[in-house]
From TrEMBL:
Gene Ontology MF term list: 2-phosphosulfolactate phosphatase activity; magnesium ion binding
Organism annotation: Phenylobacterium haematophilum
Entry keywords, A to Z: Hydrolase
Name of the featured protein: Probable 2-phosphosulfolactate phosphatase
Superkingdom, taxonomy of origin: Bacteria
InterPro entries in UniProt: ComB-like, ComB-like_sf
Protein backbone atom coordinates (compact mmCIF):
# COMPACT_ATOMS: atom_id res chain seq x y z
CA UNK A 1 0.00 0.00 0.00
CA UNK A 2 1.23 3.51 -0.88
CA UNK A 3 2.41 5.46 2.17
CA UNK A 4 3.88 8.80 3.12
CA UNK A 5 7.00 8.93 5.29
CA UNK A 6 8.40 11.79 7.37
CA UNK A 7 11.94 12.00 8.72
CA UNK A 8 14.11 14.97 9.65
CA UNK A 9 16.97 16.62 7.83
CA UNK A 10 19.80 15.19 5.78
CA UNK A 11 19.74 11.85 7.60
CA UNK A 12 16.05 11.57 6.81
CA UNK A 13 16.74 12.17 3.12
CA UNK A 14 19.51 9.58 3.14
CA UNK A 15 17.25 7.05 4.87
CA UNK A 16 14.31 7.47 2.50
CA UNK A 17 15.60 8.57 -0.91
CA UNK A 18 15.99 5.03 -2.28
CA UNK A 19 12.65 3.86 -0.87
CA UNK A 20 10.37 6.53 -2.34
CA UNK A 21 9.52 8.03 -5.71
CA UNK A 22 9.22 11.63 -4.51
CA UNK A 23 10.91 13.67 -1.80
CA UNK A 24 9.26 16.90 -0.63
CA UNK A 25 11.83 19.15 1.06
CA UNK A 26 10.20 21.47 3.62
CA UNK A 27 12.22 24.44 4.88
CA UNK A 28 9.60 27.05 5.76
CA UNK A 29 11.96 29.72 7.17
CA UNK A 30 13.05 30.22 4.58
CA UNK A 31 14.40 28.17 1.66
CA UNK A 32 11.19 26.47 0.47
CA UNK A 33 9.19 29.66 0.89
CA UNK A 34 11.83 31.61 -1.04
CA UNK A 35 11.74 29.03 -3.84
CA UNK A 36 7.95 29.24 -4.04
CA UNK A 37 8.02 33.05 -4.26
CA UNK A 38 10.73 32.90 -6.94
CA UNK A 39 9.11 30.32 -9.21
CA UNK A 40 5.84 32.23 -8.91
CA UNK A 41 7.81 35.03 -10.60
CA UNK A 42 8.73 32.49 -13.32
CA UNK A 43 12.34 32.47 -12.16
CA UNK A 44 14.55 29.39 -11.77
CA UNK A 45 16.36 28.70 -8.51
CA UNK A 46 19.61 26.73 -8.41
CA UNK A 47 20.12 25.31 -4.90
CA UNK A 48 23.69 25.30 -3.60
CA UNK A 49 25.19 24.28 -0.22
CA UNK A 50 25.98 27.22 2.03
CA UNK A 51 29.48 28.04 3.22
CA UNK A 52 31.92 28.24 0.28
CA UNK A 53 31.57 31.63 -1.41
CA UNK A 54 34.25 30.97 -4.02
CA UNK A 55 32.60 27.72 -5.07
CA UNK A 56 29.21 29.45 -5.18
CA UNK A 57 30.55 32.21 -7.45
CA UNK A 58 32.10 29.64 -9.77
CA UNK A 59 28.89 27.61 -9.94
CA UNK A 60 26.78 30.71 -10.57
CA UNK A 61 29.04 31.62 -13.48
CA UNK A 62 28.93 28.07 -14.82
CA UNK A 63 25.13 27.91 -14.91
CA UNK A 64 24.63 31.53 -15.95
CA UNK A 65 22.85 32.59 -12.77
CA UNK A 66 23.02 35.53 -10.40
CA UNK A 67 24.45 34.65 -7.00
CA UNK A 68 22.13 35.48 -4.10
CA UNK A 69 23.61 37.82 -1.52
CA UNK A 70 23.68 37.30 2.23
CA UNK A 71 20.44 38.22 3.97
CA UNK A 72 22.50 40.69 5.99
CA UNK A 73 23.28 42.70 2.86
CA UNK A 74 19.77 44.11 2.70
CA UNK A 75 18.06 45.35 -0.45
CA UNK A 76 19.54 42.56 -2.57
CA UNK A 77 18.26 39.21 -3.80
CA UNK A 78 18.84 36.73 -0.97
CA UNK A 79 17.28 33.88 0.98
CA UNK A 80 14.68 36.44 2.11
CA UNK A 81 11.37 35.62 0.36
CA UNK A 82 10.47 39.33 0.39
CA UNK A 83 13.59 40.15 -1.62
CA UNK A 84 12.67 37.62 -4.30
CA UNK A 85 9.45 39.40 -5.12
CA UNK A 86 11.72 41.64 -7.21
CA UNK A 87 12.90 38.81 -9.47
CA UNK A 88 12.33 39.18 -13.18
CA UNK A 89 10.57 36.42 -15.16
CA UNK A 90 13.07 33.98 -16.62
CA UNK A 91 15.85 35.01 -14.25
CA UNK A 92 18.20 32.40 -12.79
CA UNK A 93 19.39 32.70 -9.20
CA UNK A 94 21.91 30.52 -7.36
CA UNK A 95 20.57 30.30 -3.80
CA UNK A 96 22.97 28.93 -1.17
CA UNK A 97 21.34 27.75 2.04
CA UNK A 98 22.52 25.58 4.94
CA UNK A 99 19.48 23.31 5.00
CA UNK A 100 17.01 23.35 2.11
CA UNK A 101 19.61 23.56 -0.65
CA UNK A 102 21.74 20.81 0.84
CA UNK A 103 18.78 18.48 1.21
CA UNK A 104 17.52 19.23 -2.30
CA UNK A 105 20.82 18.07 -3.79
CA UNK A 106 20.97 14.88 -1.71
CA UNK A 107 17.82 13.14 -2.95
CA UNK A 108 19.44 10.80 -5.45
CA UNK A 109 17.10 9.57 -8.18
CA UNK A 110 13.89 10.55 -6.42
CA UNK A 111 11.89 13.44 -7.84
CA UNK A 112 12.30 16.53 -5.64
CA UNK A 113 9.70 19.17 -4.76
CA UNK A 114 10.05 22.20 -2.48
CA UNK A 115 7.09 22.38 -0.11
CA UNK A 116 6.00 25.03 2.37
CA UNK A 117 2.81 26.32 3.95
CA UNK A 118 2.13 28.60 0.97
CA UNK A 119 1.99 25.77 -1.57
CA UNK A 120 1.21 22.70 0.57
CA UNK A 121 -1.91 21.60 -1.32
CA UNK A 122 -0.41 22.18 -4.77
CA UNK A 123 2.80 20.35 -3.93
CA UNK A 124 0.89 17.46 -2.35
CA UNK A 125 -1.21 17.01 -5.49
CA UNK A 126 1.88 17.04 -7.70
CA UNK A 127 3.71 14.60 -5.40
CA UNK A 128 0.85 12.09 -5.62
CA UNK A 129 0.78 12.41 -9.40
CA UNK A 130 4.55 11.98 -9.77
CA UNK A 131 4.71 9.06 -7.34
CA UNK A 132 2.45 6.90 -9.54
CA UNK A 133 1.49 4.66 -6.65
CA UNK A 134 4.89 4.55 -4.96
CA UNK A 135 5.72 6.02 -1.57
CA UNK A 136 6.39 9.70 -0.86
CA UNK A 137 8.81 11.22 1.66
CA UNK A 138 8.10 14.59 3.28
CA UNK A 139 11.28 15.83 4.94
CA UNK A 140 11.24 18.77 7.37
CA UNK A 141 14.68 20.34 7.02
CA UNK A 142 15.06 21.71 10.54
CA UNK A 143 17.71 24.22 11.58
CA UNK A 144 21.29 23.78 12.78
CA UNK A 145 22.70 24.35 16.22
CA UNK A 146 26.07 26.19 16.36
CA UNK A 147 27.90 22.84 16.44
CA UNK A 148 26.23 21.79 13.18
CA UNK A 149 23.82 19.29 14.71
CA UNK A 150 20.14 19.23 13.74
CA UNK A 151 17.69 21.47 15.59
CA UNK A 152 14.13 20.30 14.89
CA UNK A 153 12.10 23.38 13.94
CA UNK A 154 8.38 23.79 14.63
CA UNK A 155 7.73 25.68 11.40
CA UNK A 156 9.10 22.78 9.32
CA UNK A 157 7.08 20.23 11.28
CA UNK A 158 3.95 22.27 10.55
CA UNK A 159 4.87 22.71 6.88
CA UNK A 160 5.48 18.99 6.54
CA UNK A 161 2.18 18.29 8.30
CA UNK A 162 0.33 20.60 5.92
CA UNK A 163 1.70 18.71 2.92
CA UNK A 164 0.93 15.34 4.52
CA UNK A 165 -2.64 16.42 5.35
CA UNK A 166 -3.15 17.42 1.71
CA UNK A 167 -1.63 14.17 0.39
CA UNK A 168 -4.50 12.44 2.09
CA UNK A 169 -3.45 8.80 2.43
CA UNK A 170 -1.91 6.61 5.12
CA UNK A 171 1.38 7.62 6.65
CA UNK A 172 3.98 6.18 8.95
CA UNK A 173 3.59 7.27 12.62
CA UNK A 174 6.05 10.13 12.13
CA UNK A 175 3.91 11.47 9.28
CA UNK A 176 0.72 11.08 11.32
CA UNK A 177 2.22 13.11 14.19
CA UNK A 178 3.33 15.87 11.78
CA UNK A 179 -0.17 15.99 10.32
CA UNK A 180 -1.77 16.29 13.75
CA UNK A 181 0.68 19.03 14.73
CA UNK A 182 -0.38 21.02 11.67
CA UNK A 183 -4.09 20.50 12.31
CA UNK A 184 -3.62 21.68 15.90
CA UNK A 185 -1.73 24.82 14.86
CA UNK A 186 -3.74 25.67 11.73
CA UNK A 187 -6.09 28.17 13.45
CA UNK A 188 -3.11 30.25 14.60
CA UNK A 189 -0.31 29.65 12.12
CA UNK A 190 0.85 33.26 11.92
CA UNK A 191 1.14 33.61 15.70
CA UNK A 192 2.95 30.28 15.94
CA UNK A 193 5.53 31.21 13.30
CA UNK A 194 6.05 34.65 14.81
CA UNK A 195 6.73 33.24 18.29
CA UNK A 196 8.72 30.08 17.45
CA UNK A 197 12.49 30.25 17.80
CA UNK A 198 13.21 30.66 14.08
CA UNK A 199 10.51 33.30 13.67
CA UNK A 200 11.75 35.32 16.64
CA UNK A 201 15.30 35.20 15.27
CA UNK A 202 14.17 36.57 11.91
CA UNK A 203 11.98 39.26 13.46
CA UNK A 204 14.86 40.40 15.67
CA UNK A 205 16.95 40.75 12.50
CA UNK A 206 14.20 42.92 10.94
CA UNK A 207 12.83 40.22 8.63
CA UNK A 208 9.30 40.11 10.03
CA UNK A 209 7.83 40.29 6.52
CA UNK A 210 9.57 37.02 5.64
CA UNK A 211 7.80 35.33 8.56
CA UNK A 212 4.44 36.73 7.51
CA UNK A 213 4.94 35.55 3.92
CA UNK A 214 5.91 32.07 5.14
CA UNK A 215 2.83 31.80 7.40
CA UNK A 216 0.33 32.14 4.54
CA UNK A 217 -1.44 28.83 3.91
CA UNK A 218 -2.20 27.58 0.40
CA UNK A 219 -2.04 31.00 -1.25
CA UNK A 220 0.22 29.64 -4.00
CA UNK A 221 -0.57 27.16 -6.77
CA UNK A 222 3.11 26.75 -7.65
CA UNK A 223 4.81 23.37 -7.55
CA UNK A 224 8.57 23.94 -7.50
CA UNK A 225 10.33 20.85 -8.86
CA UNK A 226 14.07 20.30 -9.20
CA UNK A 227 14.84 19.77 -12.91
CA UNK A 228 18.33 19.81 -14.38
CA UNK A 229 19.74 21.33 -11.22
CA UNK A 230 17.19 24.12 -10.76
CA UNK A 231 13.74 24.53 -9.25
CA UNK A 232 11.05 25.62 -11.69
CA UNK A 233 7.29 25.74 -11.53
CA UNK A 234 5.73 22.59 -12.98
CA UNK A 235 2.16 23.29 -11.87
Amino acid sequence: MQKVHCEWGLKGVELLRDRVAVVVVVDVLSFSTAVDVAVHRQARIHPFPYGDEDAARAEAERVGARLAASRKAGGQLSLSPASLMKLNPGERLLLPSPNGSRLSLACGRAKVLAGCLRNAAAVAAKAVMLAEGRDIAVVPAGELWPDGSLRPAIEDLLGAGAVIEAIGFDGEPEAVVARHAFLSARPHLEATLRTCRSGVELIEKEHALDVDIAAELNVSHCTPMLKNGAYENVA
